[in-house]
Design goal:
The chain is mainly α. Helix content is 68%, strand content 4%. The protein contains 10 helices and 3 strands.
Length: 235
């Protein structure tokens, strides 16, 4: 399975300005993680060291270290003598991702009830999703949804949980590619995101957590029903 990496590489050229001469593999990994979360590199895509290294203006060693970090996060997989690929998830991966989300996001909502945090990032993601839907850009709508849940998890006020969820939600984005009708999948959650924001803003922590629990279960079931056990990449 392969894909044209043109759009993704174009985005990396823009990202190059984010790197300095002292850029680290962690910064490179953060850029690639965000591009995966945005859907720029679909599951099964082979990531060319030469082309990505040139796009970002970094050494091969730095890029390989970034690949190693993202492989550890289960976003990439290295195939001997073949290169590095974006992972193709399994149904078991989907179930495990949602177990993590249920624990972290619901706990973050409870934490917000006990110690209210600013909701600017949550509201910004809701508005970004609305604007993307109005423009008919359902890929951008999916990205806004990822950012919405990152912001919800951020209500816990934990940098470690933020780091964890960045990887988990980037991994989740790989599952979105299986949905044949992105609009049908994403559109209902625009309203549910708004409802959750309203509950949070009203201080209804218990109600917000209940809404989120149903939301996550519905989303998990939708993906589970659509998600086959892939054959993965050929040996």
């Amino acid at each position: 399975m392969s894909a044209d990496l043109g759009p993704g590489l174009t985005g990396l050229l823009a990202d190059r300005r984010l790197l300095s001469r002292t850029s680290t593999a962690e910064r490179v990994a953060a850029i690639l993680r965000e591009r995966i979360a945005q859907g720029s590199f679909p599951p099964g895509s082979r990531l060319s060291e030469e082309r990505i290294g040139q796009a970002l203006g970094i050494s091969r060693n730095t890029l390989r270290e970034a690949f190693r970090l993202l492989t550890h996060e289960r976003l990439l997989v290295h195939r001997l003598n073949r290169g590095t690929f974006v992972r193709v998830l399994t149904a078991a991966d989907i179930a495990d991702i949602y177990r993590v989300r249920q624990v972290v996001e619901c706990a973050a909502v409870r934490a917000h009830g006990a110690r209210p945090a600013p909701l600017d990032a949550v509201e910004g993601a809701v508005e970004a999703g609305r604007a993307a839907a109005e423009a008919g850009d359902w890929a951008a709508c999916g990205t806004a949804n990822i950012h919405f849940h990152q912001a919800v998890a951020g209500l816990a006020g934990s940098e470690r949980l933020d780091d964890l969820m960045r990887g988990v939600l980037a991994e989740l984005r790989l599952a979105f590619h299986i949905m044949d009708d992105p609009r049908r999948f994403h559109e209902p959650y625009l309203t549910r995101n708004r409802e959750l924001l309203t509950a949070l803003a009203s201080g209804e922590a218990e109600g917000a957590e209940r809404l989120l629990g149903f939301y996550l279960e519905d989303s998990r079931r939708q993906l589970a029903e659509a998600y086959p056990e892939p054959a993965g990449l050929p040996d």
